Amino acid sequence: MARAPIGQRSGGPGLALWLGLAGIVVLADQVTKTLVVGWFQLGDTRPVTSFFSLVRAHNRGAAFSFLHDAAGWQRWAFVVLGLAASGFIVWMLRSHPGQKLFCFAVSLIMGGALGNVVDRLLHGYVVDFLLFRFSFLDPLFQGGYFPAFNLADSAITLGAICLVLDELLRVRRAR
After folding, report:
1. What is the torsion angle, in degrees rounded to the nearest 10, for the CA atoms of residue 93, residue 123, residue 67 and residue 19?
2. CA-based Rg of the chain, rounded to a whole angstrom?
């Protein structure tokens, strides 16, 4: 019996489609970060609306600046973690090609992780530039400012939301 090419089993989209999506995320993330680095000095803020500003911030840590003040080892730890996660995601994409929402979700996560890995390799930190302020966040974040983030972080977040949705739909179908 002839075997279908990897990524084509179960009639799902090919691996190339999902890797392409991850590549688009990395490209969009890097283009926006390059523009911010070119147009802004570190710490510059440009209000766009009453609740949204463009900024230039550097994060040597992870989400919410976790480990930002560590001695520098975190740069390489997060690079290794991002690459390892991406390798695992490729394996999952190859193993579950028929699960479109799942593959979409993990492709976004991989693209976001690799976008931030590129920053860590090039700069030693991640460039963040999207800053939102909502008064209801004041009890959680000083001044109501949610920590600055970037397109890679947004892709990771959207991917995580899609993973939860995929699991909820899977459990619902199993009933």
Report:
1. -10
2. 18
| Stated pTM of the model | 0.85
Of 29, 119, 153, 166, the catalytic one is 153
> Which residue among 119, 128, 138, 166 is the active-site one?
128
Q: Is 127 left (phi over 0), alpha (psi -120 to 50) or beta?
A: beta
Per the annotation, the verdict on 128 as an active-site residue is: yes
Between CA 117 and CA 128 the distance in angstroms is: 13
Element (H, E) at 45: strand 45-47
Q: How far apart are CA 53 and CA 33, in angstroms?
A: 15
44 included as an active-site residue: no
Between β-strands 126-133 and 52-59, what pairing exists: parallel, antiparallel or unpaired?
A: antiparallel
pLDDT tens readout for residues 3-54: 444 444 445 678 999 999 999 999 999 999 999 999 999 999 999 999 999 9
C-alpha pair distances (Å), 61 with each of 10, 12, 20, 40, 75 = 40, 37, 27, 21, 7
- Rounded-to-integer distance, Cα 108 and Cα 123, Å: 22
How far from 75 is each of 72, 131, 153, CA to CA, in Å?
A: 6, 23, 16
Collapsing DSSP to helix, strand or coil, 159 comes out as: helix
